[in-house]
Fold:
Amino acid sequence: MRRIVIAIGSTLTGLVLLFSWPTSLNRTTAVGLPATTGTTAAGTTTGAAAAPAPAAAAAPAATSGTFTGSAVQTPYGPVQVQVTVSNGKVTAAKAVAYPSGGGRDQQINGYAIPILNSEAVSASSASIQMVSGATFTSNGYINSLQSALDQAKL
Amino acid sequence: MSAPTLEAGAAVGTGAQHRAWVEQIMGMPISVHVRGALARSADVAAAVESAMADLHEVEVIFSPYRVDSQISRIQRGELTLEDASSKVRQVEALCQTALERTDGWFDAWNSTPGMPGVFDPTGLVKTWAVSWAARHLDAFAPGLGYAFGAGGDLQLRPAPDGEPWTIGIEDPRDQSRVLARIPISDGAVATSGSASRGAHILDPRTGLAAAGVLAATVVGPSLLWADVLATTAVARGTSAVEWVHTLHGTSGMLVMESGEVHRWANQV
Structure:
């Protein structure tokens, strides 16, 4: 069960794993994948109004829309997955609800991959609160980004 | 605790809910940021003061730059581990564990140029000390989150507003820029490299300065181990690119001397 929660928690990577584990899919989500599992989708259609209802195994090749599975209770909180299906193929998937309440859950969910950006960040930027780097000495501190961020909150 | 009134929907980092302290200890900046309704309370300020005092105590015991520190006396053969303080023995045991866990790449007995065999735990003391000192702030959880930074390595605990700490990762080629950012609610991020202090990480197999990796950033649950792994990645050089994929439950980034940037995120 723990593996399952871990997989779901780290949204994108987790979902890739999720869909590659048939047992995980069956046990933790109620998302119907008409072309592959043949189960009835328990979710509701939240996509375009024109999308056909996810009727079980009925003309799977033509099924399109966004489907949200039922929330499933796990020891770490509710887990709910939403998939977008286009012509019977899953084109997107995301967790719309996953455990995120406290520190313990955050650790179980794992850590995100660093997001690259090449833009210069000024002290007034609200997007960063702390800086990690290998160069922090007292001598270098006065001109550092971290110094600017500290001053902003002193 | 008499919590001040919480503003509904208050932005992260608003003055009333976000406070920072800075001190220079052990030759590096110690930055403590706290978030939560208690951020400006006297209790939290006193806890930060206690944490800083702990770090001063660590400096007195461990600094290799103080001739009278216990580490200096051990290095001169004037003090044995058995007679040293329990903190020194605890750090020595952690250095042994780090040596084993990194297959010899993190070597506190081979980390000082020209002094093979001399015990110098400086590379591990900083993060060990932060986790120890930060216990003063842990006492306020879950009503208070914090970011405890020491020389570019950070321990994060979740703020009650639910928003993660957004950490910028310094560009080792231009320290005025961040190369990447990463959201972390609860965990640690450590960066090792050679950007401003010269090549200060040795390849223990050659005794020479490690080459190939300009900076290694590791994100994980433990600050001490994130730092040990980041240092190991720099010591390993180019072989670190493959090796980081074996580090379960971590994410991170390698900036290579070639200019390439490698990133990873591994499941637990």
Summary: Residues 1-61, 99-108, 122-126 of chain A have pLDDT under 50 and may be disordered.
